């Protein structure tokens, strides 16, 4: 049995080997035929035609290489243009930023100038108001001095009338019409100032409360100016107020 099986296997292997040999021989024949056809085709093509084909292929190759080089140059130029445009945009951005900063600085300078002008105008208005107030104070002090002079005139007239042996009724007569009008214009009721008699029997003008209140008002205004922080003791307004205070205190009887 083993011998039969071995013999059968060998026959099968021989048959397979024969088939493989046949296929190989057929493939060899086909390759030889293809080679023969190629050789015959080249033998039929003249040498000039081959040279022309080679030259055409070389030209196509050069053209393709030229297009490649051109595309590479265009790409490089595009990169250069892109960098140039980027630098120009950067310069334009910086220029725009500088222009904005310049305009902002100019606007701030104009605003500061307007603020300084406004403060100067406001200070001028304040100073003008202070000057007007000082003129009013001076005018009131001048009125007070005039009232003191009129009081002295009235006291002298009363003394002369008493020495002239006039009666008590005549001693209380009204002053001269011009003096009465002047005193009435300065706030003295009926043109006659308040007075009292001392031991010698002479009439003396009583102190006027307005002088004390005027001095207090001057003191108060000077204190308010100094406490505001905008004025010093050397400021002309404060100096004038101090002078007015001194004058007012000296004129208080």
TrEMBL record:
Feature: compositional bias, Polar residues: 197-211
Keywords: Coiled coil
BP term (GO), one: regulation of cell cycle process
GO cellular-component term (any): microtubule organizing center
InterPro entries cross-referenced by the UniProt entry: CEP120-like (IPR039893)
Lineage, highest ranks first: Eukaryota, Sar, Stramenopiles, Ochrophyta, Dictyochophyceae
Composition bias type Basic and acidic residues, residue spans: 154-166
Coiled-coil ranges (or none): 7-147
Protein origin, superkingdom: Eukaryota
Keyword DNA repair in record: no
Region annotation Disordered: where it falls in the sequence: 154-217
Protein name: Uncharacterized protein
């Amino acid at each position: 049995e083993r011998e039969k099986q071995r013999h059968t296997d060998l026959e099968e292997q021989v048959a397979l080997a024969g088939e493989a040999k046949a296929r190989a021989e057929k493939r060899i024949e086909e390759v030889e035929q293809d080679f023969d056809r190629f050789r015959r085709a080249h033998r039929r093509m003249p040498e000039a035609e081959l040279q022309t084909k080679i030259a055409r292929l070389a030209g196509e190759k050069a053209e393709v290489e030229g297009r490649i080089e051109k595309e590479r140059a265009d790409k490089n130029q595009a990169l250069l243009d892109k960098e140039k445009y980027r630098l120009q945009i950067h310069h334009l951005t910086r220029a725009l930023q500088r222009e904005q900063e310049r305009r902002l600085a100019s606007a701030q300078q104009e605003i500061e100038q307007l603020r300084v002008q406004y403060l100067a105008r406001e200070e001028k208005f304040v100073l003008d108001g202070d000057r007007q107030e000082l003129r009013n104070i001076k005018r009131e002090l001048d009125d007070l001095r005039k009232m003191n002079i009129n009081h002295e005139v009235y006291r002298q007239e009363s003394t002369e009338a008493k020495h002239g042996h006039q009666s008590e009724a005549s001693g209380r007569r009204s002053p001269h019409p011009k003096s009465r009008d002047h005193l009435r214009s300065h706030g003295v009721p009926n043109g006659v100032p308040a007075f009292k008699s001392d031991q010698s029997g002479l009439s003396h003008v009583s102190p006027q409360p307005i002088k004390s209140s005027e001095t207090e008002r001057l003191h108060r205004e000077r204190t308010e100016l100094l406490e505001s922080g905008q004025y010093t003791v050397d400021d002309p307004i404060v100096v004038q107020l101090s002078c007015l205070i001194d004058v007012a205190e000296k004129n208080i009887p």
